[in-house]
Every structure is written in structure tokens, then in C-alpha cells.
């Protein structure tokens, strides 16, 4: 997968060189390219913002540098067109389903807003997805892009050491994952559940499903209701 990120702070994307996502880039599974939006400005001060029409606080990102950047970047691969993602608090909430959907794309472009956001006409002209990572306001789209890209990258073939682990993670089946444990068997007087030490794979699988259903019901009743409605919870309980 190729991912181009347009931002006025390309250094914000440095963490993508680390760990799992960094290794995916070294192996060539993922190719992240950060671009400085100011490259596509034409004035001496490399201006990317201006006062909002209608008044009010803050500044808005001007459309021309964005249009120039997106025109040039999206022409980089002849015969192909990227899926353009704009992180914004006004977007569709980001979910594991959306991560799975984006992971099937060969090419993504992320537009990182700053200030009061990007002129809406850019979004209208270019965005395939407007995505929110939660009901709070960040200073810019870079951290939202990091969140989205990391969730997407770990779903790419070969990125996770154990390919089964993504399928067993929270949200894959619509539910939260069961609690996990490692050695020592007893820590601060708390013992690892006996079933996990039993060697009985069927019993372990049943325990995990029960825990998954119970935890989801306690912590995220909204998810359990949805999983019950779509049949995921019933399937899990029956298995
Ligand atoms: N004035 C905007 C509003 O109230 O919706 C907030 C702009 S915010 C300060 C600047 C940029 O941060 C946005 O253009 C967007 O790229 C990013 N951003 C902030 N919160 C976000 C969120 N919850 N999800 C995704 N992107 C977000």
C-alpha cells in the first residue's frame, strides 16, 4: 500500500518509522510519503491560511495549495487514482470496519488540516472519506492520520507476526476481546484463570467467548446490542 500524507508538519509522521509500521515500510508492504503542503504555495511567505469568510476566530486553510498538492500527488501513478481521506471532527466515526475497508485500498492520501480546518470546497472536490477519530478536537489532522494509518497498516498482509491475531482482536467480530494473561501464574495474589492453563483448547475457546460477551455487555452495551442484532454475538455463543 502507498500512503501519501499532506501536512504543514511532515515531522509529525516520524513515529511511522518505528515498530510494526516501520518494519512494514522496510519490507515494502507500506510506502508512506509525507509532503509539506507549503511546497505548493507560490508567495514569499508560503502562506497556507487566511481569515474565515463570515468572521469568527482562527484561520482557514486556503484551497489553492491543497488543490495543487492533490492534483500533483494523485497524478503520480499513471492509470491509478488514490482514495483521499480527510480527518475531521465532522467525519464518520473511525471503526475497525473502516480500517478493514481502507486496508483493501492500494493507495491512500491523507489531508491533514490545521487551524479551523481546510476550506470546505477542497473537501467537496477531493475527499472520498471524511473520518473522525473521536468526539474531541485535536490541533491538527496529523495525529488522526497516525491513528488511522496504524490501524490500517497492522491489517496489511504479513505485517502482524501472527496473522490470526488481527482476526481475534477486539472489534473484529464486533465484540471486545477477552482478558489476556502471561507468566507468572500468580501475581499480587491474583491467579491466572485455571481454564487457560488446562491445555483444553475447546474449553479455552468457550471461556474466551463467554468473557468476550460478558465484557462487551458490561463495558460497551452498544456493541453487544449491535452484535446481537447482526447475529455475531449469537454465533459466538453457539460456537
Ligand atoms: N474547527 C474545527 C471544528 O470545530 O470541527 C476543528 C479544527 S481542528 C482544530 C484542526 C484539524 O484537526 C482538523 O481540520 C482536522 O484535520 C483535525 N482534527 C481535529 N479533531 C479531529 C478528530 N476528532 N478526528 C479527526 N481529525 C481531527
Automatic annotation (TrEMBL):
<feature type="binding site">
    <location>
        <position position="113"/>
    </location>
    <ligand>
        <name>S-adenosyl-L-methionine</name>
    </ligand>
</feature>
<comment type="subunit">
    <text>Homodimer.</text>
</comment>
<dbReference type="InterPro" id="IPR029026">
    <property type="entry name" value="tRNA_m1G_MTases_N"/>
</dbReference>
<keyword id="KW-0808">Transferase</keyword>
<keyword id="KW-0949">S-adenosyl-L-methionine</keyword>
<comment type="function">
    <text>Specifically methylates guanosine-37 in various tRNAs.</text>
</comment>
<dbReference type="InterPro" id="IPR023148">
    <property type="entry name" value="tRNA_m1G_MeTrfase_C_sf"/>
</dbReference>
<dbReference type="InterPro" id="IPR029028">
    <property type="entry name" value="Alpha/beta_knot_MTases"/>
</dbReference>
<keyword id="KW-0489">Methyltransferase</keyword>
<protein>
    <recommendedName>
        <fullName>tRNA (guanine-N(1)-)-methyltransferase</fullName>
        <ecNumber>2.1.1.228</ecNumber>
    </recommendedName>
</protein>
<keyword id="KW-0819">tRNA processing</keyword>
<feature type="domain" description="tRNA methyltransferase TRMD/TRM10-type">
    <location>
        <begin position="1"/>
        <end position="225"/>
    </location>
</feature>
<dbReference type="InterPro" id="IPR016009">
    <property type="entry name" value="tRNA_MeTrfase_TRMD/TRM10"/>
</dbReference>
<dbReference type="GO" id="GO:0032259">
    <property type="term" value="P:methylation"/>
</dbReference>
<dbReference type="InterPro" id="IPR002649">
    <property type="entry name" value="tRNA_m1G_MeTrfase_TrmD"/>
</dbReference>
<comment type="similarity">
    <text>Belongs to the RNA methyltransferase TrmD family.</text>
</comment>
<dbReference type="Pfam" id="PF01746">
    <property type="entry name" value="tRNA_m1G_MT"/>
</dbReference>
<keyword id="KW-0963">Cytoplasm</keyword>
<feature type="binding site">
    <location>
        <begin position="133"/>
        <end position="138"/>
    </location>
    <ligand>
        <name>S-adenosyl-L-methionine</name>
    </ligand>
</feature>
<dbReference type="GO" id="GO:0052906">
    <property type="term" value="F:tRNA (guanine(37)-N1)-methyltransferase activity"/>
</dbReference>
Amino acid at each position: 500500500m502507498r500512503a501519501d500524507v499532506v501536512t504543514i508538519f511532515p515531522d509529525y509522521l516520524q513515529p511511522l518509522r518505528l515498530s510494526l509500521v516501520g518494519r512494514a515500510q522496510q519490507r515494502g508492504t507500506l510506502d508512506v510519503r509525507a509532503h509539506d503542503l507549503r511546497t505548493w504555495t507560490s508567495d514569499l511567505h508560503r502562506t497556507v491560511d487566511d481569515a474565515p469568510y463570515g468572521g469568527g476566530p482562527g484561520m482557514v486553510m486556503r484551497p489553492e495549495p491543497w488543490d495543487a498538492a492533490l492534483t500533483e500527488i494523485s497524478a503520480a501513478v499513471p492509470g491509478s487514482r488514490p482514495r483521499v481521506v480527510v480527518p475531521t471532527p465532522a467525519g464518520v466515526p473511525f471503526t475497525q470496519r473502516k480500517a478493514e475497508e481502507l486496508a483493501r485500498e492500494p493507495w491512500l492520501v491523507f489531508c491533514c488540516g490545521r487551524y479551523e480546518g481546510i476550506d470546505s470546497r477542497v473537501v467537496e472536490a477531493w475527499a472520498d472519506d471524511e473520518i473522525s477519530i473521536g468526539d474531541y478536537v485535536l490541533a491538527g489532522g496529523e495525529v488522526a492520520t497516525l491513528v488511522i494509518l496504524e490501524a490500517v497498516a497492522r491489517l496489511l498482509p504479513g505485517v502482524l507476526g501472527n496473522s490470526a491475531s488481527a482476526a481475534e482482536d477486539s472489534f473484529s467480530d464486533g465484540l471486545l476481546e477477552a482478558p489476556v494473561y502471561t507468566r507468572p501464574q500468580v501475581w499480587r495474589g491474583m491467579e491466572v484463570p485455571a481454564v487457560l492453563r488446562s491445555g483444553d483448547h475447546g474449553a479455552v475457546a468457550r471461556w474466551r467467548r463467554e468473557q468476550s460477551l460478558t465484557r462487551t455487555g458490561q463495558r460497551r452495551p452498544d456493541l453487544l446490542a449491535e452484535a446481537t442484532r447482526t447475529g455475531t454475538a449469537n454465533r459466538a455463543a453457539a460456537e
